[in-house]
Amino acid sequence: MIAERDGSPVGIGALVVANSELRACDVLPDAARCGVGAALVAELERLARVHGLAYLRLESSLTAVPFYGAMGYCVEERGERAIAPGVLMAAVKMRKQLE
Question: Could you give the CA distance from residue 25 to residue 39 in angstroms, rounded to a whole number?
């Protein structure tokens, strides 16, 4: 999914239905804190419900945990994930029950 502002892309979101996973929600810095990310997550959650999913899970960077927390996601586990061969990044697994 691509979010646009004035015809230009400002954010992306991805849903992996088979894994009940919100795979991505990224917003350009100049569009941050303008509701773009929240709109992307809300639409991805709507699509998840359409597909009959009962929950969504995701893997967040440390800096995005407050954003997802405000959207109703709860921390399940803290750890690391590989972002390139031999390069690890702190990551937080989160989950939200969909109503």
Answer: 10
Token output for 6? 């004035």
Characterize 47-71 residue by residue with b for buried, 16 or more Cβ atoms within 10 angstroms of its Cβ, and e for exposed.
ebeeeebeebebbbeeebbebbeeb
pLDDT in tens, 10-50: 999 999 999 999 999 999 999 998 999 999 999 999 999 99
Nearest of 23, 21, 3, 22 to residue 12 by alpha carbon: 3
Domain CATH code at residue 90? 3.40.630.30
Q: How far is CA 36 from the centre of its chain?
A: 12
Residue-range definition of the domain harbouring residue 31: 2-97
